[in-house]
Amino acid sequence: MSAAETPDPGAGAAVTPAAREALVVPVTAEEAPATEACPGCGAVLVVVPGLASHHAGASPSCSGLFDVTVRGLRDEAAADVQTAGVLQVATDAYEAQHLLPGRPAAAAARLCLWVARGLDPVRPPEHTGRLADAVPRTLPVPDRWTTTVADVAADLDVVDLPSLVRSWAEAVWADWSGAHEELCAAVDATQVVPK
Ligand SMILES: [Zn+2]
Questions:
Q1: CA 142 / ligand 1 centre spacing (Å)
Q2: Is residue 74 a contact partner of residue 61, using CB atoms and an 8 Å limit?
Q3: CA neighbor of 106 nearest in space, from 176, 153, 16
Q4: Are 68 and 85 in contact, with CB atoms under 8 Å apart?
Q5: What values do phi and psi take at 152, rounded to 5?
Q6: Which residues surround ligand 1, an ion (CB under 5 A)?
Q7: Which of 8, 48, 147, 189 is the most buried (most CB within 10 A)?
Q8: What does the longest C-alpha to C-alpha distance in the chain come to?
Q9: What is the tens place of the pLDDT at every residue in 127-181?
Q10: Which of 120, 108, 82, 117 minimizes the C-alpha distance to 171?
């Protein structure tokens, strides 16, 4: 059965033709919106013409979705340390999924702090550079991801963002399990963890 033969919902149904058209799954390739898989996290998202990526290693749609998802956090981070902490964890989770080849996985190492060590993500920024120097550049990058920004965005209506970011960071950290030892060793080498 083609879309044109889909039974009409009836005169009493509160579905406008336009809304119904948006709900109908396109039946031909010409009608389907173009999608692309993010080279970093693998999220398959609709291509938005003219949209440029703001994040190296991410597709334009993926980086755009991240920007939209954390926009509220960015707006409030300067005035609220808890919000700034959530933004830091979200940024590290995202960056740990969009690592360019040969670059240090400093964001993944910071997830050791926030997830494995349970530190408060509101940290002095000066340790960041030292961490990048301490992380090996040849770590095994995960080839699959349990949770992406697309999953986070999809659940925003039913779960609060701080909880989603926490779950996302934990999932990304778990995905990096092949390098946990090296990442946490880099954290220890920078001596940013209070003894
Ligand atoms: Zn991505």
A1: 13
A2: no
A3: 176
A4: no
A5: -60, -50
A6: 38, 40-41, 43, 58, 62
A7: 147
A8: 70
A9: 666 888 889 888 999 999 999 999 999 999 999 999 999 999 999 999 999 999 9
A10: 108
